[in-house]
Write a structure and sequence with these properties.
This protein has a single domain, classed as Fumarylacetoacetate hydrolase, domain 2. Helix content is about 25%, strand content about 30%. It is an alpha+beta fold.
């Protein structure tokens, strides 16, 4: 299996750097498991780190029913965030940032002030360990042709992550009812979608607890300072050059993503 992991890792890494897509992995290798897919994801991460990238956090994907139904993937997954994926400002240059077929998601980002090590992490533990939350656009992307993904494809492809933008607002999560937090999204000045924190596994803090416990089984800790993207509150929306997305996380603040 190690040879296949390295082969698929090299293929997806080349697609990332070359801004092209590849055929779905499961369509070519039905024997691949989710564990194999995470091994491929880690192989890609090692290649990115060798290229000078540094891990700054994690993302949780496919947490809401809206996104699960849209993609046909019905369980959460996770990927790694690096410093090159963190957009400074609000302008996203599709070509310069290596995006191929981007889609925007409105999320609640958690920035940890203390380590979280599973198993046994609860939503209350997540709140206690969080320095602050922020409004966030995650720009998901897929190196799989036409977004024809199953769970193995998206996991292998770093949970279909592209880049992310954090709004300037910061809030203490203990001051808010996270499941009741409402987000409204506008695209090019027009209302697009809205959702609640409860769309993310009932509670975004519960989604982060799931991540800590999942990683803990593999000896991995969520570290103080990590940015954790907890999952989209709304359906994914395709983005092209010229699009401007604005989100308001009511009671917290705003975030803007401008595509060029």
């Amino acid at each position: 299996m190690a040879d296949r992991v390295a082969r698929y890792g090299a293929e997806l890494y080349a697609a990332l750097r070359g801004r092209h897509t590849v055929a779905p992995l499961m369509a070519r290798d039905a024997a691949l498991t989710i564990d194999d897919a995470y091994a491929i994801s880690r192989d890609i991460l090692a290649r990115r780190e060798a290229d000078g990238e540094r891990v700054v956090g994690k993302k949780i994907g496919v947490t809401s029913k809206a996104v699960q139904d849209m993609l046909g993937v019905h369980q959460p997954d996770f990927g790694f965030l690096t410093d090159r994926m963190w957009i400074d400002g609000e302008t996203i240059d599709i070509a310069a940032h290596g995006l191929i077929q981007p889609r925007a998601e409105a999320e609640i980002a958690f920035v940890l002030g203390a380590d979280l090590t599973g198993p046994g992490v609860t939503a209350a533990d997540v709140l206690a360990a969080t320095a602050h939350i922020a409004p966030c656009f995650e720009i998901v992307d897929s190196r799989i042709a036409d977004w024809k993904i199953g769970i193995v494809d998206t996991v292998a492809d770093n949970a279909s992550c592209g880049v992310f933008v954090l709004g300037a607002a910061r809030a203490d999560p203990r001051d808010h009812d996270l499941p009741a937090l409402k987000v409204t999204v506008r695209k090019n000045g027009q209302p697009l979608s809205e959702g609640l924190g409860s769309a993310v596994q009932g509670d975004p803090a519960q989604a982060v607890a799931w991540l800590a416990n999942t990683l803990g089984r593999h000896g991995v800790t969520l570290a103080a300072g990590d940015v954790i993207l907890s999952g989209s509150l709304v359906p994914l929306e395709p983005a092209v050059a010229g699009d401007v997305f604005e989100m308001t996380l009511h009671g917290v603040g705003d975030c803007v993503a401008r595509f060029v």
